[in-house]
Structure formats: structure tokens, C-alpha cells
Predict the 3D structure of the following.
Amino acid sequence: MTEYTVEFVGTGETIEVADTETILQPCIEEGIAQEYSCRVGMCLACSAEIVEGEVTQPAARGLTDEEADEYALTCMARPQSDLVLDRGKYPPSIEDDAATAADEGAAADDD
């Protein structure tokens, strides 16, 4: 088992995470305010942009292959190196879905 340092951008928070555990586990244990919901890699609430480092997250079904290279779902991601993560950053597919929903809602209001 290898431990890696995970640093969160803009918070000054760092944790040590074993390569056998998800990033979310020590966040919860250490009282770090990491959002999460489903804990099965689908809802994307726990998404973070990977600024530096590598993770493995084969069960992160909510991400495309391209997104999985740039974003970590902390409920599924296991570190493969020291990491710098920017929490609360969502992949483009989520941002696009939110913008589409907002546009559809605005159009419905106009009717």
C-alpha cells in the first residue's frame, strides 16, 4: 500500500490517501467538506478537476473516457500519485446539461 498527498486548491487542505481507498473516504473521516451523494460514480456531486497527478477510477460511470482524464469522482477515484484537485469543478457534459436545462426552463417561462 502506498500513500499519496492530495491537496485541494484554494482551501489549504491536504490529506493522505492510500492507493487502496477512495479520495472521499479520508475526506469524510477528517471532516473535509467534500460534496457527495450517490457514492457509486453516477451523480457527479463529488467531481473535482485534476490539476496535477493521476487517479484510477474504472467505476466512474458518470464520466466519459475523455472527462475521466481531467476530472476525478472522489467517491470512486483512487490516487496513483500525489494530487492537486480543484473541488466543485464539473466536466463539460454536466455544464452543458445544466445550461440546456436552464435554457429550456427560460423558454417555458416565455410561453
